[in-house]
Sequence to fold (174 residues):
Amino acid sequence: MTMSERLLVCAGGTIEVPVKGNVLVPREDGGHLIVNPPRPVWERSELTKDELLAWSMLVASAGQAMIESLPQLRDGCVNYWEAGNWALHALAEPAGEKSPRIHRQVHLHLLGRSRNARHPAWQWGEAPAFPPFVERETWSAALDPLSGVECKNVAARAASILADRYGISAQMLI
Fold:
């Protein structure tokens, strides 16, 4: 099962959109993207200086692109949440106790925060609320990911920011 679709790839890693059933913030409340580093690591300190710098530039570009490209984020912002925790849950595959160094893979969730959010977990001015591991699929089943047009607009703007501000070329995949 595909948990996300790649929108853009560059030296800093990838920008992805979670597919339906894996969304944490519905598109109308601000949207949700995932930014992966250039290679799988369990902890960000495992990245080289150049990898960490390139990933940081990709994250910043993706966040700015969301704010500039998504009308629902007008006068809004983006929360950045480093993740990989659910992979350690005893019920996650493979079931049982897990080692972070083996099972965790660092990635950042970019969570759009709209002043007009309707979902109770994403109300403006409140801390985000995430479901427990065992409720994650039911919780996100009704949440829509960013649309194809929205993804294309964010990816294009992120690629432009990467090139113009940081001198990094990116390949859009949508």
